[in-house]
């Protein structure tokens, strides 16, 4: 049974697929380089897919002061030799990547840490062995620093709206039988429907679902969007797919006119 609940208006902002990885680190010339977080996101064709990498390095040399007068060039390479460029600007809707700056920046004294959040092109779906490569020559390191990352391949689960059809004409006060099918064979933990200014949540969905959605009698006439969201790990917002259709609401004719 679908239950009606209300969510914040920013609900659509987290329609992403995210695979976090544990922190991985390497030590080179008494400098510890560490990747603290990686997120691979997918939001369909409405937003540029991307990979987010948060990394930092710590000066562990008690006799040396480092200077960061320029950003360290970085890139991502996968096991298929694909190279993913760093994005010069964050994807649309994302905040500018933050930095961890020591008090004496651009100088980095022993024990101090510098960190950045970087955006890259999203790896291909089959890639699950990535290398984060840092050109550390500005720090006086002659070789590149390579930190291995491991991601799970994209899962091909999805959600389809089978009826009503895209472009359907619906009436005020009508009960819409929303037929939703989950693809990929794995049942989600939750299905959310956003329609006609209301939000519904089904916390016990199956692979085949039919929801009765009431169009308010005073629903504004004109185009509307019915959006269906399937969440496989809603507690972490970590695996989410969505689908939507466009419909038009018209004024229902009174019975004495028919």
Structural account:
The protein has strands spanning 3-4, 24-28, 31-41, 50-59, 66-67, 74-78, 83-84, 99-100, 107-108, 113-121, 129-134, 145-150, 158-163, 169-171, 175-183, 190-195, 198-202, 208-214, 222-231, 240-250. The strands form five sheets. A six-stranded mixed β-sheet has the order 1-17-16-19-20-14, with no helix packed on it. Strands 2-3-4-10-8 form a five-stranded antiparallel β-sheet, with no helix packed on it. A four-stranded antiparallel β-sheet has the order 7-6-11-12, with no helix packed on it. By secondary structure, it is mostly beta strands. A hairpin with an 8-residue loop joins strand 19 and strand 20 (240-250). Helix content is 0%, strand content 46%. The protein starts with a strand and ends in an 8-residue tail after the last strand. It has two domains: 3-14 and 155-257, Immunoglobulin-like, CATH 2.60.40; 24-150, Immunoglobulin-like (Sandwich), CATH 2.60.40. It has no helices and 20 strands. The model is unreliable at 3-23 and 42-46 (pLDDT under 50).
